[in-house]
Amino acid sequence: MWSCPKCERVFEKASQPHSCSKIPLEKHFENKIKAKEIFDRLLKEIDEKVGKVKTISLPCCIHLFGKYDFLAALPKKEVLEVRFSLEKVLKSPRLKQSVPVSSKYFKNCIDIDSPEKIDKELIAWLTESYHLKDK
Predict the structure, then answer these.
(1) What one-character-per-residue DSSP string does 109-124 give?
(2) Cα 125 from Cα 109, distance rounded (Å)
(3) pLDDT tens profile 25-78
(4) How many domains does the chain fold into?
(5) Under 8 Å CB-to-CB from 65, ≥6 apart: which residues?
(6) Is residue 6 included in any domain, yes or no?
(7) CATH number of domain containing 116
(8) 71 - beta bridge partners?
């Protein structure tokens, strides 16, 4: 793993091309009070049940890093869209979209529309994603 000395993002390959642009986290939540409430709860649940993370706020979205970039959060007015990698496509009505990112991994996307939707099922998926590259 390689960490960019300028922006502190973590990548699998040394000197991977990327943008070092960052924005204040609060910028993502302007006029998105519900998304902020959901995000705060998500961070708390991940911290307590999954593992320690580093939050990096990029212009496109918010990234959470454990040992690698395991989750992207995209705040919207009424929902928080989360994208996370797994070695499978989720078989769930909660799945919004799944996109292959390699021959082995799929980026699974779901919308969380209330803090109560951060349940055992979601935490299990995020735990699996968090530890995906421990194997």
Answers:
(1) EEEE-SGGG--HHHHH
(2) 11
(3) 899 899 999 999 999 999 999 999 999 999 988 888 899 988 888 999 999 999
(4) 1
(5) 9, 10, 53, 54, 55, 56
(6) no
(7) 3.90.1150
(8) 64, 84
